[in-house]
């Protein structure tokens, strides 16, 4: 064989291998395709009861479940589904106004991301006018702010800063949506600055995050919020942002650690580094979303990470029951410096904490 033919053969084999790696996130067995899985989950949301925050306001899990279903309707051009979701939202703003979240907490301001998604889809300014104040007030210091909140604001951070890892999805998503809706870079820049602060304060050397500085446990969904938040901001953050290299570094370090801690089944456990802990679906889905996105966006090496993401997706889907409800979802969980507490947390079926990130995975898999 001539040297030229040998070189061409090596290139051909390399191209075939890369093509096969790319197909790992495209070709799935029957029942595992993202479009069919997404339909089961998105339509399931339509007939669900509201999941309220402390029994009073639309909760962040419901908000993200709703947005995921909405994005799926947009992606698949499912006009029927979109109409059902919009009708439910219009009922909320007309007949159920008491359920609209107020704008005084990180877990409530995130609601603005939902009307902003409706605005992006319809260009109807009523949605922009409803959603944008949730992003704006996150950086507008209230008159009754305490000393700590004032100190955060003086440093250029949101007064809602708490240094809880789930904040990095709650804050990021509403600011990112505001940036997409307006093109005003202040929204994405301030979210990026906040993200870097959280990374510097909370990320451990192995790339993972304790539930809180005083709670030294790697809780799955808590880490999932961080993984998804970094993913969302990296999707939008301009290449010239001075914060981008630090966020990308934090993201890659976390993804490497997650690859190492993936269980043989393809799932991640309730406590990520505890092999004897139970497989938990919401955290697994958040990690899988971050991994799929990283491979498709070119942040992660395809050869190394596409198999990890595929293995996770194939493990996740069987946890959806015949009704379209995800099983083995950890309930809402506050921090506690007690390892057994995390082992003993109740597990829900159909909880929006789990439904939402499954839809994020669907949407990421459907990207080209």
Automatic annotation (TrEMBL):
Signal peptide: 1-20
GO molecular function, one term: hydrolase activity
Gene Ontology terms describing biological process: carbohydrate metabolic process
Lineage top rank: taxon: Bacteria
Protein residues bound to substrate: 107, 166
Pfam families tied to this protein: Glyco_hydro_88
Stored PROSITE patterns: PROKAR_LIPOPROTEIN
Keywords: Hydrolase, Signal
Active site: 107, 166
Protein name from the UniProt record: Glycosyl hydrolase
Organism listed in the record: Pedobacter kyungheensis
